[in-house]
Design a protein that fits this description.
This is Lrp/AsnC family transcriptional regulator. With 153 residues, this protein is an alpha+beta fold. The protein is 35% helix and 20% strand. A four-stranded antiparallel sheet has the order 2-3-1-4. Strand 2 and strand 3 form a beta hairpin. It starts with 5 loop residues before the first helix and ends in a 13-residue tail after the last strand. The mean pLDDT is 97.
Amino acid sequence: MVEIDDTDARILTALQKRGRMSNADLSERVNLSPSACHRRVQRLEAEGVIAHYVALLDARKLDRPATVFVEITLAGQTEEALDAFEREVALIPDLLECHLMAGTADYLLKISARDTDDFARIHRRYLARLPGVAQMHSSFSLRTVFHTTALPV
């Protein structure tokens, strides 16, 4: 666990909203000198609090408006079965997220697709071939009501 003070929290909040801002803009926004701000950002990067900088893309503009959530239940939960599934699922190019779950399903996948035909292709080519799957349930998102990548700090 890394200690985060109020200044670090302001820096992290600002960077999560606008990761490409200059150090000068960031230091002004968090009320800190540019050199002190730069040192803090470097420390947060070195400690792994800031893991990556990314560009968030608009799925609709890239003709990938369909989001499909897939619940998967495996036939067994041995370490070998989980490892085999996780190795193979990581190879799906349309996969946005994969979560090992506690609850009714073993895994929850978030898939990006163009439409129902594209999801059928993803299902045939990748999902149906995943090892150890006993059940699979797919749900199409009708609309994203709220979405953020920002963690509360």
